[in-house]
Design a protein that fits this description.
Distance between the termini: 54 Å
Low-confidence stretches: 1-12, 232-236
Number of helices: 11
Number of strands: 19
Number of domains: 2
CATH topology of the largest domain: Rossmann fold
Shape: globular
Structural class: alpha+beta
CATH architecture of the largest domain: 3-Layer(aba) Sandwich
Largest sheet: 6 strands, mixed
Strand order of the largest sheet: 3-8-7-6-4-5
Strand content: 25-35%
């Protein structure tokens, strides 16, 4: 049983750990306590009976895949812990998880899906959706900086999950967490040594090759709330990689000005908002924007999808493939089209191509959003 930690006059209500969890696993899973003032400020707000908003953002794990009910998701358990620990407070919960997305899309949608709710405490979970690369660290850093500089001054924690074999993006993600002195917890560090040693099995914490089961969700919530109980958080230093992805916008038919479309139509809302789509080769879409980086979120599925090329101004085009061979469904893919752009206005061009994948019988192509970064540098 994990010991209770007192927060001032409030005793944090424990989350009952799964039977295989040991104190050594908890200590190993808390990879960094971070610096202290932001979480303490949230604790003081909750103690005084204020309204506290808990937010989580990530992929399908955060959305709740393989949890048997919503209340078993790690985010719901964290929010319930806050409400039990601070019964006089009004605890609000925002789940900004979307399956099959990484911090590349996450940093562009954070303003609409998370920060619009003015969160006080945010858990970021992208360690199995991101590659363990410098670019993933850059987009994660942009997301972290957006949250830390939001007017509600949230406390931020990084949560590292794992996929089969014990891998994740923790090496590069933790560089960002260390730089910003963020608390960090790791299901991988807590559980993987136990699995390797044969003391527990993969199925004790995971429902499949990547998604935790109820016990795994509970272990994550336990790690997060243990750190909150020790009330540590961090300040905002200069960027480690860059601040390009701190200043982002997500352009859709609802908010993109002066769009020129020939053959592209405005579609029904998808998970990122309304879309642009076309199914006749030669259709074109032009979206003006200001920023130093431009990407596209576009739909991929094993269906009658086509190909398109996209480019910024007069740069070389990038070919986007709407068809892919997996059978599990469709998702919004991220493709970087141009970066290190000069100041001023630029134009993203999209053109539907006549060729298509061998497995496709159609040419449909859907642009879910135009993702712009580095906006302050361009304005």
């Amino acid at each position: 049983m994990i010991a209770l930690i007192a927060l001032g006059q409030v005793l944090a209500a424990p989350i009952e750990p799964p039977p295989f969890v040991t104190p050594e696993m908890i200590e190993r899973g808390i990879t960094s306590m971070g610096d202290g003032w932001r979480l303490q400020a949230v604790v003081e707000k909750a103690r005084s009976g204020g309204e506290v908003t808990i937010g989580v953002i990530g992929g399908s794990i955060t959305e709740g895949a393989s949890a048997t009910s919503e209340d078993r998701r790690y985010g719901n358990q964290i929010a319930a812990w806050w409400q039990t620990a601070f019964p006089e407070a009004s605890i609000q919960f925002v789940n900004a998880g979307i399956g099959a997305t990484g911090s590349d899309i996450g940093c562009h949608r954070a303003a609409d899906h998370l920060l619009s709710h003015d969160p006080d405490f945010v858990v970021i979970e992208y360690a199995v959706n991101d590659a363990d690369t410098p670019f993933a660290a850059e987009t994660l850093e942009g997301l972290v900086r957006q949250v830390l500089t939001h007017p509600s001054r949230p406390a931020v924690m990084l949560l590292f999950m794992m996929y089969a074999g014990g891998g994740n993006a923790q090496e590069w993600h933790s560089k960002i967490g260390t730089h910003y002195r963020l608390p960090m917890v790791s299901l991988r560090d807590a559980a993987w040594p136990e699995i390797e040693a044969g003391r527990i099995e993969w199925g004790d914490v995971e429902a499949d090759e990547v998604h935790p089961n109820d016990a795994g969700h509970t272990l994550c919530a336990l790690l997060v709330t243990e750190v909150v109980s020790r009330h540590m958080a961090g300040q905002l230093p200069p960027p480690l990689v860059s601040d390009v992805y701190q200043h982002t916008a997500m352009l859709t038919p609802d908010n993109a000005p002066n769009v020129a479309a020939e053959g592209f139509s405005e579609g029904e809302p998808a998970r990122l908002g309304r879309t642009w789509w076309a199914d006749e080769p030669g259709a074109t879409l032009e979206v003006p924007f200001e920023g130093t980086s431009c990407a596209i979120a576009y739909y991929r599925i094993k269906g009658d999808q086509g190909r398109a090329e996209a480019w910024v101004d007069d740069r070389e085009p990038v070919v986007l493939e709407g068809w892919f061979e997996a059978d599990w469904g469709g998702y919004s893919a991220f493709a970087l089209i141009g970066r290190d752009l000069g100041p001023g206005e630029h134009t993203l061009h999209v053109r539907l191509l006549p060729d298509r994948a061998e497995g496709s019988r159609g040419h449909r192509f859907e642009v879910h959003a135009v993702l712009v970064a580095g906006r302050e540098a361009a304005q």
